[in-house]
Automatic annotation (TrEMBL):
InterPro entries: GntR_C, TF_FadR/GntR_C, Tscrpt_reg_HTH_GntR, WH-like_DNA-bd_sf, WH_DNA-bd_sf. The keyword Transcription applies. This is GntR domain protein. Keywords: DNA-binding, Transcription, Transcription regulation.
Length: 240
């Protein structure tokens, strides 16, 4: 799936949420700006007032808008947006230049994944380690980057689960859609088996050995390798 393409939505309520959400996240509707009136949007989308209000409740729940008496519905400041909401994250991926979005995602991964690998090395049960190893074996057996995508995502998700830290696992899960898009690109390089597989194997080995420091270091090396791979696939200078 290409997350930079709009999702097909069936209901007019969902279409209104999609359209306004994307306009807000892309900056077409700026923070503090008033949304078009209820009457005009109901007419434009051929929807009833209850359907309109349901759409506004959805956008409010995502932190994007707020209703003010006698003023109308206003776009909230960017720092109030629920960035890990799946729809908001999806709109960010659509609205943000690809290089900028992946750079932002890489920065987040550098904060979270080495810590998760270190914690997994400390907390993983034998069953957790076996599950991570199984995902790695499927990566190793894959012959195309399409076949490799899901095992790669499973590898990282199972490391997060092996931390036995519910909040950390939740954060990783909420980022999984963006991670899928990033991995989908980075896995396209032709020398994946020679470079990326050993990086993942080093993380697995450190976790198997209960080596938290080694797992953290191996994760940092893998992330740098992924950053360089992504830059090359996207035709960018990896040193920039």
């Amino acid at each position: 799936m290409n997350y930079r393409q709009p999702t097909t939505r069936k209901s007019m309520h969902a279409t209104l949420v999609q359209d306004l959400g994307l306009q807000i996240v892309s900056g077409q509707l700026a923070p503090g700006q008033k949304l078009p009136s209820e009457a005009s949007l109901c007419e434009s989308y051929a929807i009833s007032r209850p359907v309109f209000r349901e759409a506004m409740r959805a956008l409010t729940a995502k932190g994007l808008v707020e209703a003010r008496p006698r003023v109308g519905t206003l776009v909230r400041p960017r720092h109030d947006w629920h960035m890990l909401d799946p729809d908001v994250l999806h709109w960010l991926m659509q609205a943000t230049p690809q290089k900028d979005f992946f750079n932002t995602l890489s920065s987040v991964r550098w904060v979270i994944e080495p810590a998760a690998a270190a914690l997994a090395a400390t907390n993983a049960s034998p069953e957790d380690v076996e599950s991570i190893a199984e995902a790695y074996q499927r990566m190793e057996a894959a012959r195309t980057h399409e076949e490799r995508l899901q095992p790669d995502l499973d590898f990282h998700a199972r490391i997060a689960d092996a931390t036995h830290n519910d909040l950390l696992a939740y954060l990783c899960n909420m980022l999984s859609m963006a991670l899928r898009e990033s991995v989908r690109y980075s896995n396209q390089r032709p020398n994946f088996n020679q470079l990326a597989l050993p990086r993942h194997k080093a993380i697995l080995t450190a976790i198997q050995n209960g080596d938290a420091l080694g797992a953290r270091h191996a994760s940092l090396v893998q992330l740098e390798d992924a950053r360089v791979a992504l830059s090359k696939v996207l035709g960018q200078d990896p040193t920039s």
